[in-house]
Specification:
mainly alpha
């Protein structure tokens, strides 16, 4: 239970930092961002490379 609470606090702290950064600097220009679809595909490719293929 303590580990779950610690992770929840760490996650909340991380989100607070992100929101503070957005509040201070605003959102980035969409033209300079990577679309989520590309990020998703790159992550799925990395995960597939870690898992051995089943014959």
């Amino acid at each position: 239970m303590h580990a779950y609470a610690a992770k929840s606090r760490a996650d909340a702290d991380w989100y607070a930092v992100v929101l503070e950064d957005i509040a201070t600097n605003g959102l980035p220009d969409p033209e300079q961002c990577t679309p989520w679809e590309k990020l998703r595909e790159a992550r799925l490719t990395r995960l597939a490379a870690q898992r051995p293929a089943v014959a």
